[in-house]
């Protein structure tokens, strides 16, 4: 993405996931398998898993979508219910935040 490129149409979802201690590696492997199918959805722009460096057993998932209606369609689909079912045994809690990307800037290191 070019510097200052307007990304106002992008709908971003951020999940905070608290994972049962000791289950982190299994969760990561399962998330990767599930995430591989999510990025194949025609409305998905990308999907990332990050592990907190400040809190034990806390992960963040960021997922970008072409727009909110297409995300909501996926969110209520059988495929998404199946994904949640696979991840549920690892979770002890969490939350979801949604947002619209206003601007995005690519750093100099990304161009290399």
UniProtKB/TrEMBL annotation:
- Where is the organism placed in the taxonomic lineage, from the top? Bacteria, Bacillati, Actinomycetota, Actinomycetes, Micromonosporales
Q: Which UniProt keywords apply?
A: Monooxygenase, Oxidoreductase
Q: Which GO terms describe its molecular function?
A: monooxygenase activity
Q: What is this protein called?
A: Antibiotic biosynthesis monooxygenase
- The source organism is Micromonospora thermarum
Domain of life here? Bacteria
Cross-referenced Gene3D superfamilies, in alphabetical order?
A: 3.30.70.100
Domain ABM as annotated: residue spans: 11-99
Q: Which SUPFAM superfamilies match?
A: Dimeric alpha+beta barrel (SSF54909)
Q: Which InterPro entries match?
A: ABM_dom, Dimeric_a/b-barrel
């Amino acid at each position: 993405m070019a510097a200052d490129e307007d990304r106002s149409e992008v709908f971003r979802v951020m999940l905070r996931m608290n994972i049962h201690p000791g289950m982190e590696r299994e969760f990561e492997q399962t998330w990767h398998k599930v995430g591989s199918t999510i990025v194949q959805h025609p409305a998905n722009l990308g999907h990332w898993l990050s592990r907190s460096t400040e809190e034990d057993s806390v992960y963040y998932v960021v997922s970008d979508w072409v727009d909110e209606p297409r995300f909501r369609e996926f969110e209520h689909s059988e495929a998404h219910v199946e994904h949640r079912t696979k991840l549920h045994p690892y979770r002890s809690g969490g939350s979801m935040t949604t947002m619209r990307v206003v601007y995005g800037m690519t750093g100099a290191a990304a161009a290399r």
